[in-house]
Task: inverse folding
């Protein structure tokens, strides 16, 4: 079976799940609250309204709400295999176990892309309503918004890989969710430290912080993302987490296959999730 066909199968599994409604919640909450808080200061003479609204909305979103929602998506994707004999169907496919794990991670990336797209769409709609209401004559800075949203997507990938790794490693759902949440919470502090590049959960928030710094210190140097040592560390974390999750996923499926081969009343369920 080709990998593209496997991806189609995985997408079909989740088309009726609650993941789609979930990815709308965080963008709507953070954009509506962010723009509403700023609207008290808007006047027709207000300048840089779009960048101000974006930073106000994206800072909390990047540090906390986006990671929180992706943790839930990780658990929902992993838990899907315990429903409707999902494991039996998976093991009957003519593909490697590592490919199955990678396919699920690709689905995670797809939902991450969708959520950031929803965030951008909701922000543009809410922003247009705000500037029209207060008669602010300022063009939509589409290149600015696309630049930072693409950056938000790319910087989320290493932490998403770690989230998926922890979800696969620990059978207890509450434990994996709790551990991921605990790692997200200190992201703001980690982003302010000199070694922020060692902590993937702060990458996206750090990027938005750079946007804030660039906006408040316009024309000064030092606001660009330093690619070294960020890129090597991010790649190492991303690839290591993918390798560990694929290996663990493969071992878990093998153990489940052994259990299913033994007649027992347990039914060979792979832990609580996988």
Result:
């Amino acid at each position: 079976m080709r990998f593209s066909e496997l991806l189609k199968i995985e997408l079909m599994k989740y088309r009726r799940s609650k993941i789609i409604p979930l990815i709308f919640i965080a963008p709507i909450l953070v954009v509506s609250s962010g723009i509403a808080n700023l609207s008290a200061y808007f006047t027709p003479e207000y300048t840089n309204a779009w960048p101000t609204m974006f930073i106000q909305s994206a800072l909390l979103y990047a540090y906390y709400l986006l990671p929180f929602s992706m943790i839930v998506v990780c658990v929902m994707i992993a838990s899907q295999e315990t429903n409707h004999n999902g494991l039996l169907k998976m093991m009957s496919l003519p593909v490697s176990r590592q490919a199955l794990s990678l396919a699920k991670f690709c689905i995670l990336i797809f939902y991450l892309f969708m959520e950031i797209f929803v965030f951008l769409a909701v922000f543009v709609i809410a922003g247009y309503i705000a500037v029209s209401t207060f008669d602010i004559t300022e063009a939509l800075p589409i290149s600015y918004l696309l630049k930072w949203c693409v950056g938000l997507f790319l910087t989320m990938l290493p932490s998403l890989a770690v989230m998926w790794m922890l979800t696969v490693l620990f059978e207890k759902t509450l434990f994996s969710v709790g551990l991921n949440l605990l790692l997200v919470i200190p992201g703001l502090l980690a982003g302010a430290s000199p070694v922020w590049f060692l902590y993937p959960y702060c990458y996206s928030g750090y990027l938005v912080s750079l946007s804030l710094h660039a906006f408040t210190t316009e024309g000064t140097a030092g606001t660009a993302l330093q690619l070294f040592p960020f890129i090597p560390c991010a790649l190492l974390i991303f690839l290591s987490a993918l390798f560990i999750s694929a290996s663990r996923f493969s071992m878990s499926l093998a153990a489940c296959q052994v259990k299913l081969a033994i007649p027992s009343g347990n039914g060979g369920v792979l832990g609580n999730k996988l």
